Amino acid sequence: MFYVKLASRNIRQSISNFLPFGLSSVVMFLMNLMIATILFSPSLKKLPGAGNFAMLLGLGLTVLTVFATIFMIYSYRFLLKRRTKEFGLYNILGLKKRHIVRISILELMMMFLATVVAGTVLGIILAKFLYLFLIHLIGESYFDLQWSPLAVGIVTAIFACIYLLLMIISNISIHRQSSLELLKNASKGEKEPKSRIILALLGLVSLAIGYYLAVTVVSPLDALTKFFIAVLFVIFGTLLFYMSFTIWLLKRQKKNKNYYYQPKHFITVSGMLYRMKQNAVGLANITILVTMTFVTLATTVGLFSSINGFLGDYFLRNTLINVNTTQQRSIEFIDQVAEKNGLALNNKIVYELSNRLTGAMNDGRFENKQNLANLTAVNFMTADTYTQLTGNKIHLRENETIAYPAVGRFHESNVRFWNHTFKVKEKISEIRNFPSTSMMASNWLILIVNSKEQIQPILDDASKAAGNRYKMGYDTTISADLTAKDAKKFQKVLSYYRVNGNDPIKRINDSETKIEQDDRGEAKTIAGMPPTFERYDDMHEQMTSFAGGFLFIGLILGFTFILGTALIIYYKQISEGEQDKRSFEILQEVGLSKDEVRQTIRSQVLLVFFLPIAVAVVHFGFAFIMIQKLISLFGTTRFNLLLLTSIGTIAVVAVIYYLIYKQTSRAYYRIVER
Amino acid sequence: MLLQVSHLQKIFQTRFSKEKTVALQDVSFSVEEGEYIAIMGESGSGKTTLLNTLATLDKPTLGSVILNGQDLTIIKENKLAEFRRTHLGFIFQDFNLLDTLSVRDNIFLPLVLGRQKVRIMEQRLEKLVPKLNIADLLNKQPFELSGGQKQRVAIARALITQPELVLADEPTAALDFKNSEGLLALLEEINDTGQTILMVTHSAIAASHAKRVLFIKDGRIFHQLYRANREASKFMQEISMTMTNLLGTEVR
Ligand SMILES: Nc1ncnc2c1ncn2[C@@H]1O[C@H](COP(=O)(O)OP(=O)(O)OP(=O)(O)O)[C@@H](O)[C@H]1O
Ligand SMILES: [Mg+2]
């Protein structure tokens, strides 16, 4: 009981030490609880695309848990460091280390209970609010978010593990130090860091590799695989950059006597150099967190805001019908069915493409490889179709082609399929009345050739290479405006038909054979497919719910990252304030006026403020290239919009960061000028 | 006359209580150029308060401090730092060296703040180095030095501005006997070259190296002794006697 009293008294007495720790604990708990509550909500299953969304939430929860663990350790070590003196005093006054450990464990248990209680209460309140926000984003109104004991239980369990880890850390760190060390605190002097050219170079090289990976992504899927590798390189490079490159730079400045021996530079350079070793990790953390905030927010905001543009590019009309046969047969069939059912198709646009070839495009050579990094889908279009769409006449020789890379890049002057080679006569950047984006994750290349005679041999070869038993041919896309009622009816009617190339179109009595669940593989294709039917409104609803959920998680993560940044900066300011307090007293005695002190502090603080933001912006600049590709995985090509939303998010985050800095600087001034 | 202190009074009043502490009461004395003065008194007698007032770190309640014809008590707040930098040198009990700077840079500090040229800084340092025997220390960091070494560095920092007056607050308090002796001898040597020094201390040994000793009790100066040409040890005996007789305390 004595120890319980002592522990609770400790918390109450040094509340200023415990407050930041408690705050980060509650906030981390709250954020985890938010996501878990949504994840375990029974109405989640009712959402369209619930599986995707649940997966995203699960991913978000994992990221948050890892982040919370790292962050709690960081906060706790800070707390421990500030309390070593207190513990040392206990030790000298006769408490055994065992007892001190017991006190610190009791303290942690109290903090844990407080966290769970406060976090749950706040969670229930905040959940309602966040829920409304989520509903607004994903545009669903039947989603009912309830307080879920399961979610609270799981998050509590996660935090119990984290606190257990903290107890172990406290135990180890108290046992490791002798009582005198405990008492003496961390006031040991430190030798000026050596500048290590090799580390500096390694840091720069590591950054360069990360950046290079980002710049050279060729397709959305490539971006996905390279993203994490690039991130690792950049994190490593950032840390080394701060640890060695900045030290090297400062040392160089110090060597330049005429620069160094000026009042402002003198104090700033020497001060920064002195604590660069401990600073490096802090600055790297801040930079990485800020970059993470940028990337998370820019990606999710960018994705959400580009849905409309993307759908506009994809849907030439409000309804797309794709029939797996030639244009002539398709039109006949569709018109006939529409007429029989009294349905009106307005503003029709029709085009025919060859069946799709999917493989790798290497130096203009198509290879039948399903290689993720440079997966490309190729469709052939005849010159006639092109003319019919655009009204422009073109003349192509037998071995000539016009390339239209709708998604991705294409720079080759020749393109080769097995032993058929085409000379690329021209590269175009759009085709009128033709979508400029696809629903595929891969690159998409349209090749316009003179006639079907050039296409068929390639299709036959492709079919052979893939080992297919059926013949490849053509499919037709009909874009038209239909009323919602007509569209519904039409979709139902069409689902009874089976189409496969030149085979006769069949009508079956059982539309219930769900095509997506039919796992007969090739046989299914041979048996024929119903025409596919896509509606703008359906797709819009689906994508909004997906991207909205994504954005929601992005905002929660972004918010948590910013909060983490705030706490790290706060810790930094407090601990540096305490170190600098004595220095500034001495400086004033030796002859630095109050104003000059303030100026020096400001320039020092400003540098530390701008460095992480500047580095984070550079990081983001390279990440942007990847983000752009990643988003085009879900389908966007709107560079300007993405750039705009990115700049917007950076500006918002920078302003928040600045406010945090302003606020925490006050804590610093208060300590230094006390 | 270099320094003229007249009718100095300092009253501390804490914000939360009405209670007043009179730390200095009608203190007057003067210092000639080239003098070495020790101000002695027991703990709480007002030594540090007096020194801080002379150092312009604290403003007196009443009275004036005139250094070379300039009244220090009326210098504007924003000019004080510059004044300290150019006219005064400080030696503190706990050295007050900056951990962030190397020994050399610690010594340069006041000159850097005064925007002195690098060449002049180096010239001045060169002259001080043999006197203070700090040649080997220049490239070290303060935490690598012993107390005595630190205090020598602090003296170098005080002297490099070529101040009119060096103020020392218990410079030997943090040193052991041998280092104290060395330091006191060093201060005497520095004084021999014409440097005016004013030191406060409660140690009779330290005071005995000065040319004149002022005694302070309860914020008043009420006696003084001249060393004349006596040995330090002889002078010390008289100082001890004075302390016991006049102040009614044993000297430690
Ligand atoms: N900032 C202050 N506020 C209130 N009272 C003070 C303050 N500074 C000093 N005093 C009081 O003024 C008196 C003189 O203090 P001072 O520090 O000058 O003594 P001292 O002679 O230097 O003592 P010591 O030898 O212990 O250093 C003491 O009674 C002290 O309590
Ligand atoms: Mg004192």
Word description of this protein:
The complex is a heterodimer of chains A (674) and B (252). Chain A is of the alpha+beta class. Among the domains of chain A are: 1-188, no CATH class; 316-534, no CATH class. Helix content of chain A is 67%, strand content 11%. Chain A has 20 helices and 13 strands. In chain A, the strands form three sheets. A seven-stranded mixed barrel of chain A has the order 3-4-7-8-6-9-5. In chain A, strand 7 (414-417) and strand 8 form a beta hairpin. In chain A, helix 10 crosses helix 19 (594-634), helix 11 (276-305) runs antiparallel to helix 18 (536-590) and helix 11 (276-305) packs antiparallel against helix 20 (639-673). The model of chain A has no long low-confidence stretch (mean pLDDT 82). Chain B is of the alpha/beta class. Helices cover 37% and strands 25% of the residues of chain B. Chain B has a six-stranded mixed β-sheet, with helices on both faces. Chain B has a four-stranded antiparallel β-sheet with strand order 2-1-4-5, with helices on one face. In chain B, strand 4 and strand 5 (70-71) form a beta hairpin. The longest helix of chain B is centred in the C-terminal third of the chain and has 16 residues, at 177-192. The model of chain B has no long low-confidence stretch (mean pLDDT 89). Chains A and B meet through helix 10, helix 18 and helix 19 of A and helix 2 and helix 3 of B. Adenosine-5'-triphosphate binds at residues 12, 14, 21, 23, 41, 43-49, 202 of chain B.
Give the total of beta strands of chain A.
13
Low-confidence stretches of chain A: none
**Whole-angstrom Rg of chain B:** 18 Å
N-to-C span of chain A? 38 Å
Oligomer: heterodimer
> Any ligands, ions or cofactors bound here, and which?
adenosine-5'-triphosphate, magnesium ion
